[in-house]
Amino acid sequence: MRDVAILELKEVTKKFGGLTAVDSVDLKVGENQICALIGPNGAGKTTVFNMITGAYQVTSGDVIFCGESICGKKPHEIVKLGIARTFQNIRLFKSASVLENVMTGFHCKTKTGMFNVVFRPGMCRREEAETRQKALEILKFLGLDNVKDNEAGSIPYGHQRLLEIGRALATSPKLLLLDEPAAGMNSQEKKELVETIRKIRDTYNLAVLLVEHDMELVMGISENITVINFGRRIADGTAEEIQNNNDVIEAYLGRSED
Amino acid sequence: MAKKTNKKSLLAKIVIIAAIIIIIPFLTPNMYIMQIVNMIGIYIILGIGINVLTGFTGQLSLGQAAFFGIGAYVTAIMNTRGGMQFLACLIGSMVITGIVGAVLAVPALKVKGSYLALLTMGFGEIIRIVMINWTPVTNGTAGILEIESPVIFGFSFDTLTKFYFLIMVFVILGILYEDILIKTRTGRAFVAIREDNEAAELTGINVTTYKIRAFVLSAVYSGIAGCLYAMMIKYVSPDTFVNNTSNIILWTAIVGGFGTVVGPIFGGIIMQVLPEVLRFLGDWRLVIYGVILLIVILRFPGGVYPYIEKFIDRIRRRKKSDAAGGKG
Ligand SMILES: Nc1ncnc2c1ncn2[C@@H]1O[C@H](COP(=O)(O)OP(=O)(O)O)[C@@H](O)[C@H]1O
Ligand SMILES: [Mg+2]
Q: What is the pLDDT of residues B46-81, one digit of tens each?
């Protein structure tokens, strides 16, 4: 792992009543790295994402982003600091258009408010045109520009997943969290997704942390992999190290093979 | 070329709308009907106001009559006791309703769905009870009489026809403002909150402040409507600002076009004209009124405006293809 960690989880724990969903997990993502967080269903992966993004408060432990603790910050503040995410169950603004979804992502980078639409209409019009332009660029980048005026909820499933990535990119993240981005995609779409994720990392110059069940995809793309089971970290390392780790084989790979 | 035709069609639109607005009072046979026309205008303002909160931001309000009433009472009190004229009263009504809107938003942030509906309904009831019981200020059930007509820079809007034009100014400004706002970042934040509260927050939107903004904005629209109402009727009493009024305001938005900017124009017309047209039915009037509204909602889910828009679009396209065919 590189020295400069953009994200670092230190013994992060989340309890729901009596259930410890995440138990003292450590995790590091380096600048510009593509990392993965894997584990069987219910292992606590989404809960980890929810703690990083501020959707859940940590029970104990600390989340460090760019050298600063972000625990206790509101989700929208964390987005502004540079962490964006997608959702395991797609959560688009369904009845808004594809373009509007991405434009909404520019919220924290723009200023137009309730008063300056009246008092500074020129500034607002310029900002609006700029937002539209940048949103279109993202759609073009993801190959969604031909459906820009469609209702977001009406485009094919795979496209909706890409659109969520587009909306996240609009917030200019330094770290992109992808929660099962390949779920529901066919093998061709998955191949394209791998390319897209790499291209995103290089073009937008960001780090990626992804949760994914497709092992081929995870092993092919990740520089570092963290494995959790029942909320505990059981392994951490490169794809090769993970594939040869007995605990992992027992907990996860073994099960998926029978 | 495209820009030129755009400008042309915009100009055409403005001319048509101006013509309609100017013609209406000439077609109005008597003052009774003029008052209904003015009430339509006031309900349009109430309808576009509730649409910000409920139609665009997804926060159901069953208590809009309270804001309407506060706006009316503030104007009534400032005018009859403070001797202040229209513009001062208007600003007073806007500020006070805005503040009350922000205050209501605080508990409202904690609940959603049917709980929010109950909360706003309860708020409406509380305000009505305050109007009845805070006698030293509101004059209780007797209400406040002898409110003066608006005077702006020496010009007095002392007839219903003159008042009509004053209302139209606010209808137009209200629609223009909302139309512009909804297409910007603020409008997208409202819609994002309606579509998915948490995803909105995780897209960088401060959901709390935007919900408060939606409450304040819809309250201020209602406050303007209240101010106009008080100065038109010249009398306010708690009987006007009851639960039924809140329902009519909500229905104005629903029937006209939920989450559309101009839908409430049609909602306002339907909701105000229908009971008058049905007057001949006597006691059955309200039953038939309800049934017709239900049919409208079932036939036009999302309100009538989206259907009107589609219809106009179809005609326009047919005309265009006719013209193109003629040339070819
Ligand atoms: N809001 C919540 N309340 C109670 N339990 C939860 C909540 N969110 C997640 N859990 C529980 O935490 C555990 C981990 O869930 P999750 O993080 O979604 O797993 P994964 O994403 O790895 O499949 C599960 O047992 C789940 O039921
Ligand atoms: Mg999950």
A: 999 999 999 999 999 999 999 999 999 999 999 999
Q: How far apart are CA A142 and CA B218, in angstroms?
A: 38
pTM of the model: 0.93
Residue A41 CA, closest ligand 1 atom number: 23
Selected residue of B56, B185, B201, B210 to mutate for chain A interface (largest A Cβ count, 10 A): B185
Report the distance separating Cα B75 and Cα B52, nearest Å: 23
Q: How would you class A114 by CB atoms within 10 Å of its CB: exposed for 0-12, middle for 13-18, buried for 19 or more? A: middle
| DSSP for B271-301, written as a single string | HHHHHHHGGGGGGGHHHHHHHHHHHHHHHST
Non-local (6+) Cβ contacts of B250 within 8 A are B50, B54, B61, B62, B64
> Looking at the DSSP assignment, which residues form a beta bridge with residue A62?
A10
Task: Identify which of B189, B198, B217 has the shortest CB distance to residue A55.
Answer: B198
Give A 35-94 residues with CB within 8 A of chain B. Answer: 53, 55, 74-76, 79-80, 84-85, 87, 91-94
Query: Is the ipTM above a cut-off of 0.85?
Result: yes
CA A247/CA A33 separation, integer angstroms: 25
Secondary structure (3-state) at B1: coil
| A180 CA to centre of ligand 2 in angstroms | 7
**Sign of the dihedral defined by the CA atoms of residues A119, A122, A128, A134, in that order:** negative
Average pLDDT over residues A245-256: 71
